[in-house]
Task: structure prediction
Amino acid sequence: MSVTNPGSTQATTPEMSRRVLLVSALATSLIGACASARRSPHPVVLFVCQYGTAKSAISRELFRRRVRQRRLAIETFSRGLTIEDHLTPELRQRLLADGINPTLEPAQVLEPRDWQRATVVVAFNPLPLEVPGEKVRDWTDLPSITDDYEKTRAILDRRLKALIDEVVRRA
Result:
């Protein structure tokens, strides 16, 4: 038996209806698969500082360098609570001398999807209360990288190494 839809010149059969349902179910399944594919299969580390241009961006670049050196599959990105350029000309020169370019990616404001995506969140400043505490590593005691580059860089290097080791153990 065939039924004609109002306003349509095509007949609909039970077989066609089953096919439409099957295609619809398949499309829904594919949409779900694409959404879950956006989640990384690797650990993801998020660095967050007040302005998104100094501690978090520098840490992101140093972390990436160390991850590449160890040939690890760990993703990282950085965010700021409020965006403002806090790189002084002197700090820029020191970073360039060290081969660090924290401006490779534009600074972005922290959003819920950022901490939801992250496996670990490194906080250089207090974070919104919604960020799950079990994800957070509190590095708010890190001294100013602008005021004492050598000292802060040495502390940061030790912490980044330990963080990579922690992430590898957990993975």
In short: The CA atoms of residues 22 and 28 lie 10 Å apart. Strands lie at 3-4, 11-12, 44-49, 75-80, 120-123, 136-138. The domain at 44-170 is CATH 3.40.50.2300 (Rossmann fold).
